[in-house]
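Proteins fold reproducibly. Look at a concrete instance:
___
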Amino acid sequence: MSNKLKYLIVNAQNTKYMPTVAHNKQIGHNFKILEEFEAGLALNGAEVKSIKTGHISLKGAFVSLKNGQAYIKKMHIPIYSKASLQSKQNYHTDADRRLLLTKKEIAYLSNKTNEKGLTIVPISVYTTRRLIKVKIALVKGKKKFDKREDIKRKDINRSILRKLKSF
């Protein structure tokens, strides 16, 4: 096999590999996921490097729609340690960052969020090749009794799996 062919095979395998940089763990517990979308992020160079090193937090982050644009708010990206002084002076860690979605997706999401009880939250941040993507979801908040039902269901499934393992 030639080196060029090996290179093409390795690159084809790497395009499917999407390492998750950050994951919002409370989503499954606090919300019921109705639909998921993939969006790009408009970032500057220092933010990209900071995210790729794993310095990002989605805790409390949400998506807002205004003027035909989607923005992710309260997503914490600390300053990259090796960034220039100029970029460090004008940097805000919790600044609103624009999501790259199509006009159809934005119109659909704005119609859905006008319904009572629906909101948009980020689920995870991951890389595809050299791009940084965000998986966002249209969600509905769970009530306390819904959370209890989920916990009971998980406990029952766990006990069933334990009993099946013992056989």
Summary: The longest strand covers residues 31-41. DSSP finds six helices and seven strands in the chain.
